[in-house]
Amino acid sequence: MDLIAHQYRQARVHVILDNLNTHKDTSMGAFLSDWNRVHGRRFVFHFTPTHGSWLNQVELWFAIVTRRVLRHGDFHSVDELIAALKQFITRWNRREAHPFRWTYRGLPLVS
User: Fold this and answer.
1) d(CA 24, CA 18)
2) Per-residue pLDDT for the chain (111 aa), expressed as one digit of tens each?
3) Residues near 47 by beta carbon (within 8 Å), at least 6 away in sequence
4) DSSP letter assigned to residue 40
5) Separation of alpha carbons 59 and 23, rounded Å
6) Cα–Cα distance, 23 to 32 (Å, whole number)
7) Can you give the pTM of this predicted structure?
8) Distances from the Cα of 38 to the Cα of 35, 45, 47, 80, 91, angstroms
């Protein structure tokens, strides 16, 4: 096993979980605690706030980053990944940055 793979397996990992009330469910909390214990307690869970609909706007931007940079990216190092992300952010801020328009009006969804 190379040094990078070994370091990755030992590194602390931060996990962001959505606010779908899972963090209020005690069985889910127990599952996450047990799972984390088995994996050396290296995972740190962060939960988005309840009633955090403003985060949907942030999720839109992350979806754009995922589609344009990450999904088909081929990065040979963390430094390459960071450089690609910084380049995208610079280009986005110069040419494409705009407020995301909230269009949902609170009406029931129709299927």
Assistant:
1) 12
2) 566 666 667 788 888 877 666 556 677 778 888 988 998 999 998 877 776 666 677 788 889 999 999 999 999 999 999 999 999 999 999 999 887 777 766 666 555
3) 16, 17, 18, 19, 22, 23
4) T
5) 19
6) 9
7) 0.52
8) 5, 15, 21, 32, 42
HSE on the CB side for 52, CA within 13 Å? 13
Please tell me the distance from the alpha carbon of residue 39 to that of residue 17, in angstroms, as a whole number: 18
Dig out the tokens for 111 from the structure: 């299927």
Separation in Å, CA 56 to CA 17, 27, 31, 61, 64:
13, 27, 27, 9, 13
Distance CA 4, CA 86 (A): 23
* Residue 51 near residue 80 (C-beta atoms within 8 A): no
Distances (CA, A) of 79 to 67, 76, 85, 89, 107: 20, 8, 10, 15, 45
